[in-house]
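Before a colleague's protein record goes any further, I have to sign it off. Alongside the sequence sits a line of tokens, each denoting a local backbone shape. I want your independent view on whether this chain really folds as the tokens say. Where you disagree with what is written, explain briefly why. This is what I was given:
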Amino acid sequence: MSRFAIIVEFELLEGGFDIFHQEVLKNGEASKREEPGCQCFDVLVPNKEENRITLYEVYDDEGAFQVHLESRHFKDFSDRVSGLVTDRKLTRFRVSNDG
């Protein structure tokens, strides 16, 4: 079975970067610590773009991603940052080079 990956691109409200960045780092750490199916949670900050953050996440499978979406730390994160996000794009992938 192939691993499951997502890329989430967030466009942020002017001035919301610092708070969002802090919150997404906490969410990523909790995901890696508390979710056995979360293999990778990288927070990517584009050079010279102050209102964008991209996440790259890899899970054992799509079921593990669904566990992530139901976790308390994810729901708390979503509540805390909802007013800071002006646009969000989520792309789902299967990892094709898995044996």
